Amino acid sequence: QVQLVESGGGLVQAGGSLRLSCAASGHIFRISTMDWYRQAPGKQRELVAGISSGGTTNYVDSVKGRFTISRDNAKNTVFLQMDSLKPEDTAVYYCNANIIASSPLRSLEVWGQGTLVTVSS
User: Fold this and answer.
1) CA–CA dist 59, 37 (Å, integer)
2) pLDDT level of residue 1 (50, 70, 90 thresholds)
């Protein structure tokens, strides 16, 4: 089975920084896109940032200039560096990956368990 394990969430003051990590494990042939979503209380889940296998990135407008997504393909890991955090960034952050697994070869969409980010004012 393929799993995503997230870490790095916590409580931080406005203006502070956090770095989220999401590591994929299992029988993986390759990973195409890796994305970060977030869901705030009472709000719909939204796509925050995404990165392709070739390193192309995209961000929701509200985090541009503050968040940076990156990946380490050798370690099957995606990161989200969050700087200049605002209270409105408070949410549960979820990693998502589109994975081609091996043994047997198959396509999967996998979600992480979520990690809570709380930004105080």
Assistant:
1) 11
2) confident
